[in-house]
Amino acid sequence: MTPTRLLSVLVAGTLPLACETTPTTAPAAPAAGVEASAIGANAAGVQTQAISGTLQLVSATPIVIVPTPSGHCHAWWLVVGRYEGSIEGLVTFHEQNKTECGPGRLIGSGPADGEVTWNGRTGTIAGQWTTNCKPDASQPTGASCDGTLNFRGSGELEGVQFHTKSGPGWWPFSYTGTAFWQ
Fold it and tell me: Which of 40, 81, 82, 118 is the residue whose CA sits 20 to 30 A from 124?
């Protein structure tokens, strides 16, 4: 397998993700059909709801891959993932990756955005993600990735934040996390 092909396979799985913990103001009432028992409140008035599901790979398009004289590669990709579960919808990950040109570790990060539905509300989400992949012969591409993602909502999701963790493993990734609002 050529270094570029291996990198393309590795990068396609580098999704998820970055973290931000500052809560924002959000809708005070849960969406219709959400039971009060599913939502808790902490002392600061921030409400939370556990979220979980699967992140499926839809497409991965390389923008540019630049090998350096030291044997490292810098790569930029557009990866589209489909959230299924508590969050439903397509998200585009604007990936910036650094890795060895060949098998090895991969670190990626970048902005992400898309239109999703949560609790019957549809809106746009935007945020940052980061991922860390390590060699793992048990995975189909020889790498296992995990990551963190933080989104802020707009439209019907104005004021809602989503914090998710995914992996370890390879596509499809399972995710767990929390939705926050006041």
Answer: 40
